Amino acid sequence: MPCIFLNKHKLLFIHIPKTGGRYITERFKENQGLLGGVEHFGCSTHISLRKLQVHKNFLEREIQDYEAFCVVRNPWDQAVSMHKFVRTAVRRRVKDRLLGKEVKRDTSLLGDLNILRQRYLCSFDYNVKERIRYQRLKEKGTLPRQQLDWVKSDQCVKTHVLRFESFLEDIKVLPKEVANCLNGFVSKPQPYHDWFSPKLAGIIEQAYKPDIEALGYKF
């Protein structure tokens, strides 16, 4: 999802995956008039503050005048949400391809669909481990990307880190007009503990240790 500039309030929203960002984005779109316009950075994927800052369009702004905000979430809860999202998205993709015009019952298509099923419509345990492994490779390090990595900055940008679990209380640090647009947010507690074996819970704890220590989250 693209990041969002609220230029009237000199505010920038960085969307961390599976932290309620879709709701925030939709609410900002619905209230563009009240907010004095909403500008989307032209990117279809999630983008970090550091990557955003090297983009030419962003560097032309008075960056020191902007504040950023993001939402973080308990890493164990976030892992369950990500798993459910991926399974739903892949099921939809498989269904669309089977019902779409592109389906010709050819071997290559069926092979692709089988790979999707095997890779993503599998156990939660497998998906969590694969996600961590993939992120480690992508980050070229021993740890996957942390949530707080999304808002690390090479320049001095004040950042508000809101929590998914206490969102309605935390948005009070934002300008009143902005906060009022988001006061219908409902964080849906889910019993994520039942998804984890002791071993898998420990894997999450080790993989996201910097976030867990910095944010004070517990299993």
UniProtKB/TrEMBL annotation:
In terms of domain of life, where is this protein from? Bacteria
Q: Which Gene3D superfamilies match?
A: P-loop containing nucleotide triphosphate hydrolases
Q: What is this protein called?
A: Sulfotransferase family protein
